[in-house]
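Need residues for this backbone.
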């Protein structure tokens, strides 16, 4: 279905994708990198459509935000209902029912102790991370944060100080938030300690020694406010850490009195087959940062922390004008209800496994496929060049542009991997079809 032609005073403005892209280039900052040259007119389920009505499998899902697919009728109705009732009043001014319900619901999804925790709602994942750091510093009275090389926590100046997935994000930006020290995330495919490609169960464990070294030489344990970690490194390459990783971080926090902050912005809300990815490890963090899917496609971020931590924050310590906007909360609440009622976490596990099987099987005849890894519907297909080396990022970006032309929207993670993070409603038949589209394109390139 084509969109109605946009006009001002009856004069047609732009009617084609090409026109929209040309107008965009005129007025929008070039700072935004575009993975594809597609202008999106509308979305439905796992598909996006351009202004010519061409259909695309959306394997980006708004960068892992549209967990129940585009324009789910229940989410659309929830948004419309709330928009008719109260669009915004601001939490600083008084109390808003959707804010309360969102806080109640988010904590109810978390493991014991956090399920009695308290929430604070913001507008984005980065803001959630910065809020978590603020809370950790405020309640511990300590200043230092341990974060990870290969970790991603956002681009605003505070969150960026913790982001360690690419120096490109920091270029010309010296003078970020101080007090963040980085240690290597266990990246067993590209071990920082030179141990060659391995699987997480064969991990050399040197990351553990590096943390200890950091605590011995750089960050006194008495100054450590928090360890900030993604349970699976997202932007850094969908890196699944070894099983003892999160338990070890928990133990270090318990020993030093630091707080464990889990950044579940990308891994959260069912994508890995659990509400939150920490559940796979049994580790309970002190603070969880959330974003992306929790707003059902509208801007919403959150932190949930143990109540005794949150209760040490004094009125006025934190907040934001739009944080916990009622329309975003309603969209998120409906999204959570749909994930639960439609069994989408089980679907993510089933369909994610099938998607990975397609790429694993194709490795035998497609040498461009290096590693295939993931959990649930977080799937990375790492590509290699003719010499078996990681595909150069520029070439990966060309592959992604080509896939766009073949009707598949994807992004990247890590320097050389295709990132497949579709809506959790993707069916097995759709997984088969989209895998074929991607594999056909890769075969052509091989
Ligand atoms: C793990 C993680 N944390 C934080 C962020 C930042 O979220 P936002 O872009 O909503 O600020 C992202 C975004 O990709 C993310 O993946």
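Answer:
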């Amino acid at each position: 279905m084509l969109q109605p032609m946009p006009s001002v005073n009856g004069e047609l403005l732009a009617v084609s994708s090409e026109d929209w892209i040309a107008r965009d280039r005129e007025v929008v900052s070039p700072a935004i990198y575009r993975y594809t040259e597609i202008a999106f007119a509308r979305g439905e389920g796992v598909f996006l459509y351009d202004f010519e009505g061409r259909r695309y499998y959306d394997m980006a899902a708004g960068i892992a935000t549209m967990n129940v697919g585009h324009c789910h009728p229940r989410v659309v109705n929830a948004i419309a209902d709330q928009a008719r009732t109260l669009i915004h009043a601001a939490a600083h001014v008084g109390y808003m029912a959707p804010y309360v319900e969102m806080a109640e619901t988010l904590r109810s999804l978390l493991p014991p102790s956090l399920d009695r925790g308290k929430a604070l709602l913001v507008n984005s994942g980065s803001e959630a991370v910065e809020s978590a750091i603020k809370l950790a510093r405020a309640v511990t009275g300590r200043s230092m944060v341990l974060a990870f090389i290969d970790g991603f926590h956002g681009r605003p100046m505070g969150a960026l100080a913790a982001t360690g997935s690419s120096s490109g994000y920091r270029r010309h930006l010296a003078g970020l938030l101080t007090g963040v020290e980085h240690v290597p995330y266990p990246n067993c495919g590209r071990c920082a300690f030179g141990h060659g490609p391995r699987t997480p169960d064969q991990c050399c464990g040197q990351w553990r020694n590096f943390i200890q070294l950091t605590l011995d030489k750089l960050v006194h344990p008495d100054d450590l406010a928090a360890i900030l970690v993604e349970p699976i490194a997202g932007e850094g390459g969908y890196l699944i850490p070894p099983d003892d990783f999160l338990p070890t971080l928990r133990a270090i926090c318990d020993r030093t009195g630091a707080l464990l902050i889990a950044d579940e912005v990308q891994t959260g809300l069912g994508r890995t087959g659990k509400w939150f990815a920490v559940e796979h490890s049994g580790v309970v963090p002190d603070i969880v940062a959330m974003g992306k899917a929790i707003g059902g496609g509208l801007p919403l971020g959150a932190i949930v922390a143990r109540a005794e931590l949150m209760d040490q924050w004094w009125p006025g310590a934190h907040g934001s004008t739009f944080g916990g906007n009622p329309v975003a909360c309603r969209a998120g609440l409906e999204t959570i209800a749909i994930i639960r009622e439609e069994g989408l976490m089980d679907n993510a596990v089933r369909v994610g496994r099938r998607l990975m099987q397609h790429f694993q099987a194709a490795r035998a005849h497609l040498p461009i496929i290096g590693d295939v890894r993931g959990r649930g519907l977080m799937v990375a297909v790492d590509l290699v060049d003719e010499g078996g080396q990681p595909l150069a990022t520029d070439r990966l970006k060309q592959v992604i542009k080509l896939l766009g032309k073949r009707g598949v929207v994807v992004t990247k993670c890590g320097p050389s991997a295709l990132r497949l993070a579709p809506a959790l409603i993707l069916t097995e038949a759709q997984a088969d079809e989209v895998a074929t589209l991607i594999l056909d394109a890769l075969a052509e390139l091989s």
